[in-house]
Amino acid sequence: MTERGLGRSSEIAQARAARAALRSSIEGSSGPQTAAGVVHIELTDGVPVLSSSDALGAVLAASARLAVLGSWERFKICPADDCLRAFFDRSRNRSRTWCSMQVCGNREKARTFRKRTRAQNSTLAAV
Ligand SMILES: [Zn+2]
């Protein structure tokens, strides 16, 4: 994370803890989850609004806002073993599976196609 200019090692540790806590929440894990960061609460038109001046706090504030708005369940974890990224499902029926159909979805389609083709070829070779 330092190579991406995200900050000092203590901030990176906080960011990793926050990422782990958010990931656990997306996966529906129960139990204690902690995350650190600086989030401010401001009253705007009588409504509390969370904000932050740093990236970690902004992510945490956005997460809280999505939970309040009832959109938390739209967060998903990509099931590709070599990906496992969190993404926000914007599909109308909430059926999106992959973080990116162009990358992970197509890779899985190609893998399934190769398996099917291999099985058909071995069946033909046995005949
Ligand atoms: Zn993915």
Automatic annotation (TrEMBL):
- PANTHER family, sorted: BLL6575 PROTEIN (PTHR35525:SF3)
**Domain Zinc finger CGNR positions:** 74-116
Q: Name one Pfam family in it.
A: zf-CGNR
- By what name is this protein known? CGNR zinc finger domain-containing protein
Q: Please tell me the species this chain comes from.
A: Lentzea albidocapillata subsp. violacea
Q: Which SUPFAM superfamilies match?
A: Jann2411-like (SSF160904)
**Coiled-coil regions in this chain?**
none
